[in-house]
Amino acid sequence: MQRPQSPAPRIMKRVFSGVQPSGSLTLGNYLGALRNFTKLQHEAECLFCVVDLHALTVPQDPKELYQRTLDVARIFVACGIDPKQATIFVQSHVPAHSELSWLLECTTYDGELRRMTQYKDKAAKQEVVTSGLLTYPVLMAADILLYQTDEVPVGDDQKQHLELARDIAVRVNNRFDEAIFKVPKPYIPPRAAGGRIMNLQDPMEKMSKSAENPRGNIALLDPPDAIRRKIKSAVTDSGREIYYDEENKPAVSNLMVIYSLCSGDSLEEIQDKYAGSGYGKFKEDLAEVVVETITPIQKRFAELSEPGVIEDILSDGRKKAEPLAIPTLERFQDRLGLLARS
Ligand code: AMP
Ligand code: TRP
Questions:
Q1: C-beta pairs of 228-232 under 8 Å, 24+ apart in sequence
Q2: 154 within ligand 2 shell (Cβ under 6 A)
Q3: Would you say domain 14-192+305-336 falls under CATH 3.40.50.620?
Q4: CB 3.0-4.6 Å disulfide test: which of 15, 152, 197, 199 passes with 46?
């Protein structure tokens, strides 16, 4: 029997990213990640995954999880990811993710996982901490390494997890003196380009699906009036001037980044436009710019709610993803000395 060999080199780079179905997707998810997915699909072979197994690391209501998994996939498409261009699928539909995750857990050190800041933050908020919450970044490494991924577009909060995925890949490759896994590169926008959109009520905290303060969160499916209300009540910094200064004007800087990314205007243009006009007018215009960005997404989302439409897209996605994943899993199993299935 022939031993599984390295895949043939590819011409196009491969991109992989995942989003958890753990809550309602926010403007932060869109500006930090999804918007870039839609750009990358034209220049790379892209796989975008609804990472349902990651969501299980904290308690989930089964019915809600089921619905949200479909909804995240719908939002992918509604944001402009073309299922003919990119592969959209659900993590648990490709069991190779869980299988590789276990194998990688056996090459990852306990200390590496305990150091992860997201683990420490999330663990502090849980009544009981599951071992899945600790090993979460290994499953993420498995997602990425399984596909020989070149680039991973994510927000800034995933930097540490990506570093770990790279470390694991290098460690395995060194151990076997063979390029079993491609070492993936992060694709993280700078803060002023959406890498870290902050909570509108607390500019020190990122905007998050599971935020304690939902008033500071704009969900992609929020009705326009709710968006207007949330922006109107957004906190601002002392002084009335509108300029970009992450350190001293964190709240206004965050609003400016949102304005800039939704409208296409540069930060300088926004600064000039609102020089001397105070926060009121700026916030009013910002609300309209955000509503204009989100409304078409909501329209497409509603169209995708027809039964069967998203299910078919996910079924096609699984059929495309699984054959890409299996060879890497089998090669690693072989090198570890696991008995081949005959
Ligand atoms: P998650 O909501 O944790 O599944 O994140 C999905 C993607 O959105 C990841 O690439 C995150 O890094 C990104 N993301 C989440 N929240 C933000 C935020 N507030 N600003 C920028 N990117 C974000
Ligand atoms: N951990 C990521 C987040 O919370 C989601 C994720 C899981 C992911 N697997 C991934 C992102 C693989 C990129 C690549 O945002």
A1: 228/287, 228/291, 230/200, 231/200, 231/255, 231/283, 231/286, 231/287, 231/290, 232/283, 232/284, 232/287
A2: yes
A3: yes
A4: 15
